[in-house]
Amino acid sequence: MKKIYIYALAALLLSVSNSCNDYLEVDYYDILPGDYMFESETSAEYGLVGCYDSFYPTKGAEVDLAMWGFKPQFMLANHPTLDTQASGWDKAYCTQDWTASSSEFLIVWIGHYSAISRCNIFLAGLEQMENTQFKNGEQTKKQMEAQARAIRAWNYLNLAKNFGRIPMLQAGETYSNTPSKPRPDTEDETWNQIVDDLSYAAGILDWTPLNDEYGRITKGFCLSYQAIAKMYQGKYDEAKTLFGQVVASGTYSLLPCYSYLFDPERAWTKEDVFAVVMWTDNGNNMGSTNGWEPLEDHYMFACYNTASMEYSGWGSLFISWECYKSFEEGDRRRAASMVGLGDTNPWTDQTIGAANAPHVKTGSEFMPNISSLKYWRMKCDYSTVINQPFSIRTLRYAEVLLHYAECCFRTGDSGTGWEIIRQVRERAFGNQEVALNDPEYPIPMQTETVQVPDAQTYYTKYKADKGYSADTWLLAVNMERRHEFNAEYSLFYDLKRSGMLEEFINLEYPKNVGTDPGADPDGALDDWRTYRTFNNNPNKMLFPIPEQEILTNDAISPEDQNPGY
C-alpha cells in the first residue's frame, strides 16, 4: 500500500506530526513559502495532502481546537438525543442548556473553517498552474481540484447541519484575508455549493482511491455526501438515485461481524466509505511543557473520554439505560457497543460494579453506569494509558444503506426500503458471523443462523406500545440508526432532519419520570431512568453561531443569530 507524505506549509497552517502506518505517514515537516506549493506537481501534491491533514483530530486542552474531530463531534451528534450523557460542563448538551458561548461550537466552527481555508488557498493556487506542469496534464490537475473541492464540501456540510446558513468562503478566501463574510440569505445557497463541489468531484474521481492510497476522496464519498445534502434539501428522489449508484457499484459491503468495526487493528474495511485512522501508540502521549499539549497530532484520548469512571475513565461519554434496554433480544450490536453494570468488558476483563461502582447510576451527577465499547478496548489507567488506536468512521456503508432506505420509503418504494432494513438486521443478529470461524474473538461468535424478527412486524408493535405517531417505516429506520450508530457521529442530525427528534425524546425519555436526584440523591443511584425536566425546544434544532464569530465577523450581527439564542 502506498503512503502519503504530508509537508507542513506555512501558507496552509499545517500542524506538526510524526507517525507511521499503511495509510498515512508524516515523515517530517518544513516551513516553506506558500508559492512553493505551486511550482510543480510534486509540491502541489504536498499542498493537497495538507488539506487531507485537516481530517486528523487535535488533542491540546487549552487550544481552540481541543479534541477537534472526536469529542465535540460525538457529543453534538449524541448528547442532545439523551442516548448518551455527560457530567460536568458537558452536561448542558443533554439538557438543551447550551449557549452561543459553549466551547464545542467554537471548536467545530474553527476546525471546519481551518480546513476550508486550506482548501481555498490550494484551489486558488492550483488554478494558476499550467497543465504542462503535470505529468498527465489537465487530468491530474482536475483530480487534485476534485479532491480539494470535496474536502471543502464535506467541511461545509458538517457546518451546515450544525448551524444552518454559514458564511461560504470561496477559492482564495480564508478567515485571515476575508474576516467579514455574511451568511447567505437561504440555506439552499449553502447546500447548492456543497452539491456543486461534490457533483464535480464525483465526475472526476473513481470508486477506488487514487494511486490505491486509502484515505483519499473517492467517487463513493462524493456521491454519498451529495445525496445526504439532497436529503437536507428534501430532494429525496434525487438522493435515492445517488445512493442507488453507490449500492449498485458493489464497492462496499457490510462487515460480517458488527464488532469488527471497532477493533483497533481493522482499518479501511469494505464498509468504510471514509474513515480517519487513529493508529498510533497506546500511551498517554504527554510530556510537553504544560503537560497537556500532545507531542504528536495523530493521537486521541479515546480511553480517557470513554472508559468507565470505575476504571480510570474521565466520563465524557455514558450510554443511557433507555438505549441499553431498547435492543431486541438477539441483537448483537449491544454487546459490541456497550458494557453496563454487571457486564464485563471482554477486551479488558474489567467488570462494571466489581470495584467501587455498584449502582446503576455512577458519580455525584448520577450518570448511567454504562460505557461505550466502541472506543474502550484496552485498559486505561490514566497515568500511562489514556489513548487508544481506533478509526473515526465518518461514513460507513450501513449509514448509506439506511439513508437509501429512507429515500425509498419517501419516494413510494417501500419494498426496497424494507429489504435494505432486513440486510442491516441480518448482520445485527449475527447470521454472517457463522462462517467466520473466529473462535478466539473476545465476544463469542454466532455459531448457528437465527430467524431475524421481521422488521415491519416488530416496529408496528413497537409503535403501538410506545404511542408513536411517526410512520412505521420512519420509526424503523431511525431505531436501526439508534442501534447501529450509538455514540458515533450522526444520530441527532438524522432524528432532527427526519422530523422525529421531539417525539423520540418525549416517548423514549418521558418528562419527570423516575427519581429526581435533587430530591432523593440516594434513591437516584438505583433508578435507571433518565430524569428529564426540560421541554424540547424547537429552536434548539440548530446550534448557535458561536459568540466569538458574531463578535469578530463584522458581516454577522447579533440579529443574524439562529432563533432561540
Describe the structure.
The chain is mostly helical.
At a glance:
The chain is mostly helical.
N- and C-termini, Cα separation = 49 Å
Indicate the percent of residues in helices.
Answer: 25-40%
CA-atom Rg in angstroms:
23 Å
The overall average pLDDT, rounded, is 89
Number of helices: 18
Topology:
Layout: E1 4-5, E2 19-20, E3 24-26, H1 41-52, H2 71-78, E4 84-85, H3 103-128, H4 138-163, H5 187-204, H6 219-232, H7 236-248, E5 272-278, H8 302-306, E6 318-319, H9 321-324, H10 333-337, E7 338-340, E8 344-345, E9 350-351, E10 361-362, E11 367-368, E12 370-372, E13 390-396, H11 397-410, H12 414-428, H13 455-466, H14 472-484, H15 491-497, H16 501-508, H17 521-524, H18 547-552
Parallel strand pairs: 1-3
Antiparallel strand pairs: 2-3, 4-6, 5-13, 7-12, 8-9, 10-11
Features:
37% helix; disordered N terminus; mainly alpha
